[in-house]
Amino acid sequence: MSAERKTLRVATYNIHKCKGLDRRTRPERIAAVIEELDADIVALQEVVHAPGGASHFDQAQELARLLREYGWSFGENRPLEGGAYGNMTLTRLPLLSAKNHDLSHAKRERRGVLQTDLEAGERTLHVFNAHLGTSIRERRHQARKLVGEEVLAQPELSGPRLVLGDFNDWHQGLTTQLLRDSFESFHPRHAFRMRATFPGVMPFVTLDHCYYEAPLTLLETKLWRSPKALVASDHLPLVADFHWE
After folding, report:
1. Strand pairing of 71-80 and 83-91?
2. The pTM is what?
3. Rounded to an integer, what distance in angstroms lies between the CA atom of residue 157 and that of residue 182?
4. Pairing, β 208-212 against β 216-223
5. CA pair distance 30, 37, nearest whole angstrom
6. What is the third-level CATH fold of 7-244?
7. Distance (Å, rounded) from C-alpha 159 to C-alpha 125?
8. How far is residue 13's CA from residue 118's CA, in Å, rounded to a whole number?
């Protein structure tokens, strides 16, 4: 968040394990897309973190190496490739703390939301980077836990909350309803003036969302459709610019 811009730019981006539409796994291509965004906070989903492995497996470390201006946190949801698989949050703001909340349900794939607390002027900004399940019943369980006292309604939270990620809620079910009850949101539009976000080449469902509250005031939003982004993942970055009171 720069004094010159007087805005806070945030983005959410499911990077699909850095595998593009050409089936190549290239973390450097994802890093190039993130550089294009010029965002202060970037919430990434489907990231592999395998320390000591090849760069295409240790994607978290490789992205951190290529994007040195960002601090980062990682939340493990399940083991993968000799390491971990989960969400990663990149930030230009000072990072105060981070913890991962387990949202897994029954025998479904393990899911979570990564909480990263940032210093934003005289306030603490609580950023929640979520990746929810693909089953309706699973998401109903996750939605209730997400908005409850274990995660978003923690009594010790002292500042505004920003919740973003891949919610897989294309039916606008309980997850969408509960979050809209407590937060502001928006309907993303792209070049074809549709509200969908997925798949990137020709979106027809909305999976990626951003929820926020005062003192954040929405200025502009866009689905990032650069030539690089159209190939780098099956998702496109969802970008939002905010004024910070």
Report:
1. antiparallel
2. 0.92
3. 15
4. unpaired
5. 11
6. Deoxyribonuclease I; Chain A (3.60.10)
7. 6
8. 19
Quick: pLDDT tens for 5-36. 589 999 999 999 999 999 999 999 999 999 99
Break the chain into its structural domains and give their ranges: 7-244
Say how many CA atoms lie within 13 Å of 175 toward its Cβ. 32
Alpha-carbon distance 152 to 170, whole Å? 22
| Sequence-separated (6 or more) residues with CB below 8 Å from residue 67 | 31, 34, 35, 90
Q: Rounded CA gap, 3 and 52, in Å?
A: 38
| 92-120: b (≥16 Cβ within 10 Å) or e | bbebeebebbebbbeeeebbbbbbbbbeb
* Tokens coding 130: 């979520």
For 44-54, the pLDDT digits (tens) are 999 999 887 76
DSSP string, 89-104: EEESSPEEEEEEEE--
Name the residue type at position 87: N
CA distance 142 to 18: 26
Cα–Cα distance for residue pair 209/206, rounded to 1 Å? 8
C-beta separation of 17 from 47 below 8 A: yes
Q: How far is CA 231 from the centre of its chain?
A: 19
CA distances from 244 to 1, 30, 137, 145 (A): 9, 28, 36, 28
Alpha helices of 38-81 — where are they, by DSSP H? 59-66
- pLDDT tens, residue by residue, 99-158: 999 998 877 788 899 999 999 988 999 999 999 988 888 889 999 999 999 999 999 999
